[in-house]
Amino acid sequence: MGRIPGFTNAIFPTPAMPGLSLVANLGLILFLFLVGLEVDLRYFVSNWKVAVSVGAAGMALPFGLGCAIARGLYNDFQDEPGTVPIEFGTYMLFIAVAMSITAFPVLCRILTELTLLSTPVGVFMLSAGVGNDAVGWILLALCVALVNAGSGLTALLVLLTCPGYVLFLVFALRPVFMWVLRRTRSLQDGPSQSVVALTLLIALASAFFTGVIGVHPVFGAFLAGLICPHEGGFAIKVTEKVEDLVGALFLPLYFALSGLSTNLGLLDDGMTWAYVVGVIAIAFVSKFAGGMLAAKANGLVWRESATIGVLMSCEGLVELIVLNIGLQAKILSTRTFTVFVVMAIVTTFATTPLTAWLYPPWYQRKLEAWKRGEIDWKTGVPLGDWASEADAESVRARKQGGDKIRSLVVYLRLDNMPTLLAFVSLLGGKPSDIVEKKHPIREKESTDYDALQMMSFNKRSPVQVHGVRLVEVTNRTSTVMKVSEADEYSPFDPVLNAFKVLGQLDNLAVSGEAAVVPAVLYADTLVTKADEESADLLLLPWSETGSMSESQTISTESVRNKLASDMYSAFIAQALETAKCHVAVFINKGFIGSLKQKPSTMDRKMSTLSVRSQRDRGMTVTNNGRSHHIFLPFFGGENARNDSIGSDAGSVVAEQIIVTPKKAQTLPIHHEDDAAFCASMQRSRPAELESRVMFDSSATATPLSHAIASAQGELGQDPKNGGDLILLGRHTPLASSAAAGKGCLGVATDMVFESGIRASVLVVQARS
Known about the structure:
Elements: H1 7-11, H2 17-38, H3 41-46, H4 48-77, H5 88-100, H6 104-113, H7 120-148, H8 152-183, H9 186-189, H10 193-212, H11 217-226, H12 234-260, H13 270-297, H14 302-312, H15 316-328, H16 334-358, H17 361-371, H18 384-398, E1 404-405, E2 407-412, H19 417-425, H20 440-445, H21 449-455, E3 463-472, H22 477-484, H23 486-489, H24 494-506, E4 508-517, H25 522-532, E5 537-541, H26 556-560, H27 566-578, E6 582-587, E7 595-596, H28 611-617, E8 620-621, E9 628-634, H29 638-642, E10 646-647, H30 650-653, E11 657-665, H31 671-684, E12 696-699, H32 703-714, E13 725-729, H33 732-742, H34 747-754, E14 760-765
Parallel strand pairs: 1-10, 2-3, 2-5, 3-4, 5-6, 9-11, 9-13, 11-12, 13-14
Antiparallel strand pairs: 6-14, 7-8
GO biological process, one term: proton transmembrane transport
Subcellular location: Membrane
GO molecular function: antiporter activity
């Protein structure tokens, strides 16, 4: 836009530039502080061999070729306006650093968006990126120090001061800072406002000191970020306090000023364009080749190695920062600066599509199976024991009427955790027989010790439940840091810990994990987890507000219209269409664990009550019983009979429920088969369930309306029970054809929900 006549003078007038430059440089300092916070040296320490080999190879080759092309750039462009006379060695060092540095922040975001952080490629890149980033900034600080030094003695003094300052930060300042953090419980409870102020003061003071001694201030800010601890998520929490202001105001201003310094009009002759092509080719090919060969030497296959080479070539905004430092130090002319800006843009934009093409999800799954020895690489056919297991699975999948749910994957959401826990607990069994226990020493003395121990276990194996907690990745640095620290984030997640307690109470084998992924990949992540766990059922709760967010701000209007959410409907539809196992969608409406909002104290109809008495009432649980009335409408047809799903815990659950299948048949061609099916189900019920299960058959021209009317008479009659439940089936072709008009769960579900029946809904889709 600077090419528009009068634009620059009107929007960025000359008198305003000093103030804008000051604010922009402050933003740059804070940004480099955030980059230091994002760099976790624990990755480097735990994978130091990989980090050294891949990082060194990814820097050495472009560094050497950068030194070679620096001779031509020095001879052709060093005498242009805006530069100062410097030695070729200093100029060569700067060009080599600019060619070899990798943008670690951009790299983390690419790995996160492509969900590669947990793959071998992601581990290699995080380890190598940390070392590459640190070495690059050290070399850049050395280069700037040599330029700013007026004599050799001054340069020597600067070079000795820098290592001394680093040692001071690590061995003097960091222990004191850690003592303050432990004293204020900032590592356990998060940083207070005063601790955040202290942390920023350290960053600014460090930047000031490195600027005074002759090194650029960004180096000091980067070091201040490196010494901040990652224990207890401290670095993440500090980043959350600062990142929005830096990312929304300060940093864009810095890059706007960087754009003002870029003049594409200077690329006006063949020689300049030859350098543009040469710089791009050297930057990409050298980093690609170095990273690929080093990764191959560490045991990766060629395609994984090529992916690492592509990722190493990402220059990103860190390259622009390096170039601006060179421009401010008058090492680069405006023409040379523009050449390298074009290189940075081209290499960065090429990284993501090339990575997605080289390392797609299907290739990752195939490679993992091949490394585990499960398949033949060329044909993809299962090998050995895996082949027999695959054949058994295919046979089991064809037996569609007698499947037992022995394992399931559950999507854990904070907004409906109480009702979800209550629903999953129904899959558990009776508690084990209570045995009188003795002191361990007395038990060992008892002759019946072994028998006593055997009695305390339930003979039926528990249902295996794997909970998946999804945390959305945004463009914020803090969420990217959560991805890289997901292994430490999971054990302290309160939702996961509450879910794991469920297994100890309800005879369930419970496990869980947290995954930090973009919202658009939620469905793929859950379906993949269900496939990895060999789950029989994927249980998806419908959001209490219809939003993908787990916000605690819940309004009556949002709860009433939660099925109308386009985004959540798309998420559920994608999971239903791609899942290989049974899928159940649970829509809560008054199930046990639901809370009722207290009436507003400002409402006129409550004016007769004191504010104190109303406040003390707080939140009230709408139901506290353990029995459930289950309503199962059966509309007939071969698909309905074949899509029935059984549970291994059915005999236990049946003691707490009342089942009312409603047969509403309109297709005469299936009438005899459906009648026989219902009669068979009625005869097969155990004697102890005679009084609990009722069958009712009726023929009508409007089966859905008749079923809803019957449900309204059956359900919602006992306000003290644990909540009623309507069980509906979803047939994929019919639901898909109706989805455009009524939603992804089908017309029946929408009509039942809109009818106002006081009952939750469970929509089940059998595996295809």
